[in-house]
Amino acid sequence: MEKEIFSEHFRALLEFSAIINSSLEIEEIRKRACKAIIALVNCEAASLLLFDKESEELYFDVALGEKAHKVKTIRLKLGQGIAGWVAQKKQAVIINDVQNDPRFFRGGDEKSGFTTKTMICLPVMIKEKLLGVIQAINKKNGFFNEYDLELLKALSSQVAVAIENARLYDELKQTFYEIVFALADTIEKRDPYTAGHTKRVMDYSVAIAIEMGLGKEEIEKLKLAAILHDIGKIGIRDSILLKTERLTDEEYKIIQNHAIYGAEILQHVRQLKDIIPGVKYHHEKFDGSGYPERLKAQEIPLIARIIAVADTFDAMTTDRPYRKGMSIEAAIQELKNNAGTQFDSEVVEAFLKALNKMR
């Protein structure tokens, strides 16, 4: 019987390890880890406290179980409470009478209304580095034992690897975004009148995407495309890009090339290939009168149709050397007037809903 239970738990550990390590999203990893703790040791609730190195505090970033949404607001100093003691000493404990343990921090129970009776608490570490603490709370049948602790130690090792991988991924992602913003900033530095344009277009585009129910991956691509939508302007000479009067027809044709230049620049970065349509086609018009390829309606990628609305709205409401920016109300009316001709009506509708929430 014991052998069967061990085999069952071993299979469960392998399964949970695979699930936990199948994501690089730290929030998802944390939630999966807590679900695994509850299932492995048959407890009422579980929590994962992460270690904030800068403040030297633990915080309940994820807690599953009754009233867990309140528990996750708590922060503990090293040495404070059972979790703080475990983090400071870097050793695990089994406590089957929590209420009478002098280390117990009652603030958690007071804030959540949850009564902690029994607990296993152990550090989550990798290469002697503290990442956090996991807790299994209130064994459903009887008390926690050494076998439960061994199961959680095995799980903790997998959680540590997953968290570290996710953090490294987040650092790389952040660095990537900083480089992308730096590229976009080269354009804004050339033209002081476009200061802040990139971020506003990105914010508007993401808001539209959320309103339209796009998935996380699509929003990520849209965000990058919005940041880099004008990168091709680096190939436009200053005498045209910085001209304070209205452009001549010939100059306007030259500046239209920035959409093509942007696509050509991004072709050299394999990771950015999926955002090229947003950069190349954000000046196409729904009725087919735009550039560079006079695409129309659904021929224009959605990513480009979204950026077109966000970009145009910001351009209309921004002061330029040769004209003062429109009021928000006037720009909204302009979008409505051109919905179905210059712009995708569905995108305009989504933008107006999003804008109303942002104001």
Assign the CATH architecture of the largest domain.
Orthogonal Bundle
Quaternary structure annotation: single chain
Shape: elongated
Instruction: Report the helical percentage.
Output: 40-55%
Counting structural domains, the number is: 2
End-to-end distance: 64 Å
**Rg result:** 27 Å
Mean pLDDT: 86
Domain HD-GYP: 172-359
Pfam families: GAF_2 (PF13185), HD_5 (PF13487)
Organism: Thermodesulfovibrio aggregans
Protein name: Phosphohydrolase
Distinctive features:
about 350 residues, alpha+beta, Hypothetical protein af1432, 6 strands, about 10% strand, Phosphohydrolase, HD_GYP_dom, hydrolase activity
What secondary-structure arrangement, pairings included, does this model have?
Layout: H1 2-20, H2 26-41, E1 43-52, E2 57-64, H3 68-71, E3 75-77, H4 81-89, E4 93-95, H5 107-112, E5 119-126, E6 129-139, H6 146-190, H7 197-211, H8 216-227, H9 238-241, H10 249-256, H11 258-266, H12 276-280, H13 302-316, H14 328-337, H15 345-358
Antiparallel strand pairs: 1-2, 1-6, 2-3, 4-5, 5-6
